[in-house]
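Why do we bother with holo predictions? Because pocket geometry can differ from the apo form. Keep that in mind while you read this record for ketopantoate.
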Amino acid sequence: MYNAPYNNQFRRCDKRNTVKTSTKLQDQTWYVLGVGAIGCLWAAHLGLAGHKVKLILKSCRRLKQFQLSSEIKLSQQSEEFSIPAEAELANDKTSVIRYLLVCTKSPDALQAIQSIAHRLDQSSRLILLLNGLGAQQAVAEAFPNIPLICATTTDGAYLRSPFHVTHAGVGETHFGLISHQDEKETIYSELKSTFRCLGLVAHWDNNIYPRLCNKLMVNAVINPLTAIYNCNNGEILKSADRLSLIEELCIEIESVMDKLCPDHTSNLFAKVQKIAHATAGNYSSMHQDIAAGRLTEIDYINGYLCQQAKELSIATPLNLKLIEKIKALSP
Ligand code: KPL
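The structure, written out:
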């Protein structure tokens, strides 16, 4: 299912070796903000494809930790790669950032981008690979002069240790422009060549909103339920009571999305069961956030849905209940 991951021009590193040379196809420096599993996965693949990668870190402690090796480790399909990268603090530099990939948690996205606002201009390509909805709109309002690209992924990844990512499930990432539509063709042709050389599957969508909504709908069921029941994705399917709650919840979510995004895919109940089954052994990101005492993305998933529903005068009692329960479990 992978795209041909490595072009002949790139030297592929052997197991546990470091990528020593690579002939750059394009002169692109990619900055990555948010170095969780997905941020590291993309940073690693951009580096493997020959781009210069710079991580923007939020503390001196993280910077020092990264500089012990100055590389990102990627484990995938029983192979290990070490990809050299650079890192800097948000306020350390002043040079303009042209390619910025934002993979933070949704609640942190706006503030993180604002911390480097002085380095962004109209030529910047701002790509938001975030969960849920709401943060993208806040960034679009705060940065009206910069074309905003949103992305959503089904790749599965987890961090083994800081800056060491395992690509656990091969999925796809879809990108699309949500502002400055007049620049669509230029931006698309620019990014197309980057995506083509990546070892990740990436597609451009003319309308990314339905895809963001589809992901949100699934997350609005699996994420809070796994956190509330303190279980993995598969276990939410394991009782008749849980299944009937899921079914009712799906109906409520669809009633909102039918109005909000008529292009969403149908039969959420079947889709949730399929995804929970396919990722049965995984713990959802919300379960992991609660377990680690972090703020969750509930306001950008079920919260976004309820807020939109309120404007549409649609009742969402089940979603409101889930939000209340998650907030009670959150720090
Ligand atoms: O996207 C996910 C998440 O955990 O955020 C799911 C689909 C629930 C997979 O774990």
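Confidence is low (pLDDT under 50) at residues 1-25.
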